[in-house]
């Protein structure tokens, strides 16, 4: 099984792509090679392949990166399944993971949701999508400051509060307050729950 994330940037037409696009490409490129395993297409849509275990945390890395830009957000459709045809370009590869992800993006765009998952197991889909609906209430309302903290901690969980304070040019007490407001511990717990749930597939 593999995981495919198909996403699109919300409000991209109102923001200069030169601000966010290089950073998104840099993030995706730090994980894997393009165009076989990730690609940005049609200006503001993208697709990336990753391991099933890592797909939630990587989705959160993408979400927190995009939320550091004013008025931007991202829709993320996670598809889990097989890969029956591997092309030199991810957008030309095929399998149930790709189908599950691509169709789901259309669905959540219509429904106004920003995070959902589609696997071949209806029970896992139901349980995880209820969880994602609740967590998205928090994720979708992240401020730029909250998104910055979360993104840095997801990329490097070993960062100390002192190091974060230095990076962000704020006091350690401000870092502590932002981490509390970000509910970062809940993101970590959700990731652990996701990994256990996805093991049922």
Automatic annotation (TrEMBL):
Q: InterPro entries this protein is in?
A: Cro/C1-type_HTH, SatD, WH-like_DNA-bd_sf, WH_DNA-bd_sf
Q: Which Gene3D superfamilies does UniProt cross-reference here? A: Winged helix-like DNA-binding domain superfamily/Winged helix DNA-binding domain
Quote the SUPFAM superfamilies the UniProt record gives.
Winged helix' DNA-binding domain
**PROSITE patterns tied to this protein:** HTH_CROC1
Domain HTH cro/C1-type: from-to ranges: 159-177
Could you tell me what this protein is called?
A: SatD family protein
Taxonomic source organism: Kaistella yananensis
